Amino acid sequence: MNVAHELARSCFEMYNRSSTGLAPEIVSFNPSSSGIAPPFEPHHDARHSLLRPETVESLFILWRVTHRPIYREWGWRIFQAIEMNARVSTGGYSSLRDAYVG
After folding, report:
1. Residue whose C-alpha is closest to residue 97's, from 4, 18, 33, 41
2. Does residue 17 sit within a domain?
3. Could you tell me which residue, 83 or 10, shows the higher pLDDT?
4. Cα gap 72→34, rounded to integer Å
5. How far apart are the C-alpha atoms of 74 and 9, rounded to whole Å?
6. What is the value of pTM for the model shown?
7. DSSP readout, 36-84?
8. Residue 44 falls within a domain, yes or no?
9. Which of 25, 33, 44, 97 is packed most tightly, with the most Cβ within 10 A?
10. Distance, CA of 37 to CA of 35 (rounded, Å)
11. Catalytic-role residue among 6, 13, 25, 83
């Protein structure tokens, strides 16, 4: 479960670190980076966000298995970011050209 938590935390941080609260399509990991946060940065050619559901789905499953409230909190923050930055006024949702511009 520790590995699952750390993987979920890394995925959440991909969302959390952008100005829109949405994850870029591709990140590059830098294992030589030091610090507490996962060592990654958005890939220079893939800062767009396609609103992929895998992270939120994983957070839901982890919450159901562990009942740890952090997973619901992370999922709620991602949902709010989608509502704020990807919702289209005429209905539905759209991808973003750059998850770091918002």
Report:
1. 18
2. yes
3. 83
4. 28
5. 9
6. 0.86
7. SS--EEE-TT---B---SHHHHHHHHHHHHH--HHHHHHHHHHHHHHHH
8. yes
9. 25
10. 6
11. 25
Catalytic residue at 25? yes
Q: How confident is the model at residue 30 (pLDDT cuts 50, 70, 90)?
A: confident
pLDDT digits (tens, 9 = 90+) for 43-52: 888 999 999 9
pLDDT at 38: 61
3-class state of residue 29 by DSSP: strand
101 in a domain, yes or no?
Answer: no
Residue 72 belongs to a domain: yes
Residues facing residue 14 across a β-bridge: none
Over residues 55-97, the pLDDT tens digits come to: 999 999 999 999 999 999 999 999 999 999 999 999 999 999 9
* Number of domains forming the structure of the chain: 1
Pairwise CA distance, residues 6 & 38, whole Å: 9
Tokens of 41: 């940065």
CA nearest 23: which of 58, 70, 62? Answer: 58
Q: Which domain holds residue 65?
A: 2-85
